[in-house]
Amino acid sequence: MRRKSSRSSPKPEAPKCNKYQFISNYTAQRVAGANELEAILQEKGIYNSSLCTPNVEKTDLNSSDHFLSLEIFDDWEYDTFDPVALNVWKNVEALAIFPPFTDWHHVSVLSHEPSSNSWEVKRKDTSSSHRIPRLQLYFLFEDPYKFADRIAAAEKARKTAENAIRFRFLCKHLSSGGCFAPGRTLEQSIRRRTSEEVYAIFKNLYESYHIALAVGKHLTQDSSVAIKQPTIRSMDSAKHTASPEVARSPIAYLLDCFRRKTLLCDRNVFHALRFVNQECEMVRKLPLFIVANEKPIPLEEYAKQNLAQTSKTMKYLQNSWIERSTMHLHRMLARIGDGNFNIGVSRWKIYSVMKLKRLVEQVLYRMQDALRDLLLTSTTAYVHYLVNDCSAILAIEQEDSCYSWDGNLIDSPFEPKRPAVFYLTLEMGQETPYYSTDPDTFPDTLRCLMDDVLTECHFIHTIEPTLMQSLIFAGNLFLSSVGLLDPLIVQRREALLEYYRKSLLPLKAYAARYTAYRELFFTNVKEFIEQIKSADKSSSEIKEDIALQIRMRENLEHTVPLYIVIGPYWINVAPLREALIRKRLELTAALLKMLTEKLRLKTADVIGCYNTINERMCEKPVSIEHIYDIRAYMEDVPELVSRLEDRMRSILYEYEILDGFLHNLPDADFQQKWNALAYPRLVLKQMVSVKEFHETEVDRFRKQQFADEAAFTASIEDINAYISKFTTLYDVSKVSEMSVEVRRLWKTLQELIDQGHVMNRRQELFEMAPISLNNLFELRTAFKAYRELWTVAADYLKLEETWIGNPLASVDLEGVRRGLQQTHDSLKDLLPLFREQPQLLAVVEHFILVVESFRPNLDIMERLKCPYLEAIHWGQLAKEIGVKGKLSVDVGFDVFLEHGFRDHLETVRRVVVRAEQQRLEQEARWAKEERIRQIEEDYRRARAERRQKRTEI
């Protein structure tokens, strides 16, 4: 089952061993050099000569020389790290001492032999390497005083061991002569109760014990002897087979009981616990959360980095920590072999009473303690990092939902004591400003980051299944971790959530202040300019608008910050600030451009007026009239130029507006402005040239007038002769040709009259006598009746063709009647004019007869266009008249004339009358049916109303 801790508050960590030292930085140097190390060693009474390994073959036990190697008594508990687990020693610089043990030298560490704890090093000044014990090697990152204590402890242990060996040697080779044998009474008592073998063992132990007492007493009295009596005595040899009650001394018995009770009965157990403790200490210092950053980062990036760090640490906790701890225990306990620490035990009953189970529980408690310390430390650092101590935020009442930012936008009253954690960018939305990360996600995200880690830490397996693989364990054995409802965790979670929930109030209130800039942010420059143009503002009003935009831009630069810190948030306002300033600059530039374009158009209009004046004056005259028109226009040019100069002066004032805003005109506009200022002089100069040119043109046109007058007289004579000859023609079969020719002659005659008027006006301008046009007027009066005859006849024949050839349905009977009457009246009016010309009078009478002969067709057309004629009636007409074919109103009237409908007028009248009667009868029948239908409908409606009013019981 999963073990859970019942403790609600963190338990203080157990005190470390005095020999233990924790090294946080393996690159730090604790001593300056060899001289400083030797000084520290000498303070402890350690000299270089004491590290010498003695020559065992020449050692005299009677002397005080050392005969045991010092590395045998090295206490490995002083080791600062596990050389197998940590590779910090590889190629590191250290201090070492070599035979003849005179000085310490700087060396580089090459390799390590784990079984003997010997190290291979190389001096810097030589290429050869040496293998030395650990006591002769000092790492610069370890505590020199602890290193001195390690050597001193080894020397003390060697001295104790050599003294015990000398004492035992002295006791063993001392000749007692039987004086230390048991008394006779004791000898007889033992032999009587036991065998000879037991007595021999007892005698040997008895003599050895009393010899040791005697020697010890002698050594105590003689202080000059180097050998001292050992404080703890043990039996000489393990080969004695006497019973424990007889063979053991009280001290040995107590030592045996202690070994049975304690777990630390073997040095491998101690080293196993030491290694486990080292792993736990490493776990306590693992980084579980991201609690430091050089600069603020977005929440998404922080969550991503935190997830990566958490995943890495959890992978170490769930895999590497368990594997390394199991490896250390397995390596150390495997050296012990069978017994209380046999990791190969395969029976639960045996395992439950073994010391191994107590050892595993001890390891379990240490690992759980380390895990709890890790979580409490990590969550403390996590909350401490995120809650960066802003007292103003903590003073906010969380219930104040209407919190508003009352100060300016630059100074923040929520400056924290420590740097901000998260990076936000303030942006402008369609409705309201918003942040690059939704502020409402901060509390839940940060809480989930902490709770997820606490949850995952409940799934770290224990070491039992991996250490004792011969036993079967449940699959859900996990280390007990800190719960989500632990009071400390709840307190820290609430502090975190409270801080960030309160921080949202000023954060949102600050963003809300930028709502005032939303309209500016989304202003469309083109639409803004179009509104200004539609308002038709004057240049002075546009100047005020430009000045306003400049003032507003400067106000933005002084009132909107680049960034601001609000509690844990570092808010980047620079993009929004730059966008607002850029929009003000764009509006200013657009207004200046609009004013420039406006002035360009005004200036172009002035220049256009000047160009119009020039073009009007410089027109090439085509006649004398044209010259007089230009001269009349030139009389008003000085006044026009003066007015244009006044307009340009007012435009120059508007150009000064652009100069006031230091706006550079485009080269084309600049050139245009100065051209407009220079035009008056050019126009007046051009007037002089034009007047000189007109003097030469007047002489040329006078000469042309004489030539035109002669040609005009010849044209009059030619047309008079042609008309006189043409009026003798009266062939009625050539009506069309005659009408075309008379129209042409009439047009020519009219053009000659117009030309005569023009020439008379020119004669007046040239101050010459006018030309007589009376003969042209008389000729036109005489030719008018002749023109009327042929044009009226030709027009009527064209109308008659359209009436007969077009479908009967498209013929307008009223138009036919009106056309016949107008033609008849026009021809009647011509009769008196041709009484003296019999041939032309006959022509008029001929066309009158043609008109009268068409009148009977009008009656037939009216009856055939009766709207009541249907297919059956058309069929009856065709049958009675004898027409083979289908008749209808869509057939042309020429078809009816071909079949002789003019001879069957009564038949047509009878059929039409019958069709009208049938239509009247049908309409009467339809009216009657409609009345019946209406009566039935009224009856059904009344019956439905009565049913609705009826009451059901």
From TrEMBL:
GO terms for biological process: microtubule-based movement. Pfam families: DHC_N2 (PF08393). Residues 778-918 form the Dynein heavy chain linker domain. GO terms for cellular component: dynein complex. GO terms for molecular function: dynein intermediate chain binding; dynein light intermediate chain binding. This is Dynein heavy chain linker domain-containing protein. The lineage of its organism: Eukaryota, Metazoa, Ecdysozoa, Arthropoda, Hexapoda.
